[in-house]
Amino acid sequence: MVIRFESTAGGFIMLAEHALPLIRMTGHSGAVPGAIPAADVARALATLRAALAAAPVPAPTAAGGHEDEPATPPVSLRQRAFALTDLLERAARKGCDVQWAEEAGGVLRP
Fold first, then answer.
1. CB 11 within 8 A of CB 86
2. Which among 4, 1, 11, 14 has a CA at the least distance from the CA of 79?
3. Which residue from 64, 80, 61, 75 is spatially nearest to 22, judged by alpha carbons?
C-alpha cells in the first residue's frame, strides 16, 4: 500500500510500512485516511522530532547477509522521516493542514 501525503505546502508518497509508524510518531492514531489540522502541525512536528531523536540508529549490516561483503548502512528512521518532517515544517510556516490517504492506481481513496 502507498500513502500519499498532501498539503498546500507540498506532497509526496511513501510505502505504508514506513509511513504508518511515522504518522504514529506525530501523535496521530495512524488511521488512513487522516489529517493534521493547521493548528496542530507545529505540535505534530515537535512530537515527531522528539520521537526520532529517541529512536535507535541501526548498525550497518553486510550486504546480502554475507560476511565477506562490505557493510552498508541501512536506511534509518530519521532518513525515512525527512520528507514528512520537511512537509510539516513547510505546512507550519504556511499555516495549512496536512492530509494523507491510501493511493491506488494514481487516485486517492477517501
1. no
2. 14
3. 80
**Strands annotated E in 41-106:** 61-62, 71-72, 98-104
Q: Where are the beta strands (DSSP E) in the chain?
A: 2-7, 10-15, 34-36, 61-62, 71-72, 98-104, 107-108
Q: What is the pLDDT of residues 10-29, one digit of tens each?
A: 999 999 999 999 999 999 99
Written as nine digits, the cell of 48 is 515527531
C-alpha 56/C-alpha 34 separation (Å) is 27
Look up residue 73 and give its three cell numbers. Answer: 548502512
Give the pTM. 0.81
Rounded Cα–Cα distance for residues 26 and 75 (Å): 20
